[in-house]
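tokens incoming
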């Protein structure tokens, strides 16, 4: 297995794609911290300003996620990615020079819209670059590279903001997109692999669009387990997505430190995600344990919010951020594994896009609601509100998923008994 994972790096094409993803991820982490600092400084310390930035970053998939699918396969893949990186480089680098909060809102929204076309193309070129047999190894290599970049990129963001300032930090992200574009220019794809090349009539597109949309939501109606995961995901998103906003706010209002210290807590959370993923490894082989792992994950997230609400030392908050990262890993891995196991491949895309729309709406509600509560009542009380939501979600996950796991276990035993009888 290790040999297969290493072999993907022998392809110059894959190395270009891998490098472009890793370097642009590093730049995005710089901007994540810089946007928080910029929003608080320009708005005079209003949490709702940064909440709007976060909300606008989640809106494009909700509004246009389905529409993007109608165009992504009709355009040249390499050209789409290169142009997307160049445009994002210019947009991000322009934020500190324009200097207005409304322009930051526009840039965040447009950048996420570009990502709707960029990301599917990046995934679509993988089979042409590494072949069908090495897709898993290639995806794992990209995920490992981008995850490993999280912590050093956040620490670099702290250093840049502390020693140089906002402009070089935003320029660093712009430069990362430009470097990624240069790397992708050399990407060589097989003839005919760039695009589907088919022209779809507008009326046919909208018929297909409505059918796909309806099919995704109808699947949830007809499958109770997948529906339960949707509601748990929505509840979890409401409790979780406001955390980054409130973390940045408590650094300013409770710890009385510069907002750039958000990078320390984000790096700690990233370390927690990596640690939680390492703890799980391939141990989750029996689905009957999934509900307990998911419930524990939501509980740890709630406990970390409670700790952040009461903590007055950044060292303590770092520990609770690590706990939050572990909680994220414990929720995401079994949830993704269970859904992939029970949702047929033929409808998986529609089901996950419908799920993404629901979670996207919940994320917008979470960050705007948390920002409003923090602005009126303070970050501490907003964190306690998220704590309650996450603890209730932990209880919901056990009461709704444990019976489902037992039912699946019983069906497996009956099937084994029947097979033995035959």
């Amino acid at each position: 297995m290790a040999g297969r994972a290493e072999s993907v790096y022998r392809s110059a094409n894959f190395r270009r794609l891998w490098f472009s993803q890793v370097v642009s991820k590093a730049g995005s982490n710089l901007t994540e911290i810089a946007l928080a600092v910029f929003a608080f400084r320009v708005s005079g310390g209003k949490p709702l300003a940064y909440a709007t930035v976060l909300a606008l970053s989640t809106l494009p998939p909700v509004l246009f996620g389905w529409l993007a699918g109608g165009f992504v396969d009709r355009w040249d893949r390499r050209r789409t990615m290169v142009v997307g990186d160049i445009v994002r480089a210019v947009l991000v680098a322009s934020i500190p020079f324009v200097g207005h909060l409304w322009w930051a809102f526009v840039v965040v929204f447009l950048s996420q819209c570009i990502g709707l076309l960029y990301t599917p193309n990046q995934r679509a070129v993988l089979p042409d670059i590494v072949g069908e047999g090495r897709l898993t190894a290639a995806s794992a290599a990209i995920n490992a590279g981008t995850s490993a970049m999280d912590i050093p990129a956040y620490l670099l963001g702290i250093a840049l903001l502390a020693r140089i300032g906002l402009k070089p930090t935003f320029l660093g992200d712009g430069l990362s997109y430009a470097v990624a574009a240069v790397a992708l220019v050399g990407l060589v794809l097989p003839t005919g692999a760039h695009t589907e090349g088919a022209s779809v009539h507008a009326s046919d597109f909208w018929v297909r669009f409505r059918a796909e949309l309806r099919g995704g939501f109808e699947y949830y109606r007809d499958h109770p387990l997948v529906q339960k995961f949707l509601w748990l995901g929505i509840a979890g998103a409401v409790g979780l997505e406001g955390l980054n906003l409130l973390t940045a706010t408590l650094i300013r209002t409770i710890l009385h430190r510069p907002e750039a210290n958000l990078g320390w807590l984000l790096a700690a959370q990233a370390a927690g995600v990596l640690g939680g993923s390492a703890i799980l490894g391939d141990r989750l082989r029996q689905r009957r344990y999934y509900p307990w792992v998911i419930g524990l994950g939501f509980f740890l997230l709630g406990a970390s919010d409670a700790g952040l609400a009461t903590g007055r030392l950044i060292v303590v908050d770092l520990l609770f951020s690590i706990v939050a990262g572990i909680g994220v890993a414990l929720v995401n891995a079994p949830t993704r594994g269970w859904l992939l196991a029970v949702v047929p491949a033929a409808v998986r895309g529609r089901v996950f896009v419908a799920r993404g729309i629901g979670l996207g709406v919940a994320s917008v509600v979470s960050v705007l609601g948390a920002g409003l509560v923090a602005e009126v009542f303070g970050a501490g009380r907003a964190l306690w509100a998220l704590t309650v939501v996450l603890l209730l979600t932990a209880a919901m996950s056990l009461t709704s998923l444990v019976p489902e796991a037992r039912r699946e276990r019983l069906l497996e035993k009956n099937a084994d008994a029947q097979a033995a009888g035959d």
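note: Residues 1-5, 193-200 have pLDDT under 50 and may be disordered.
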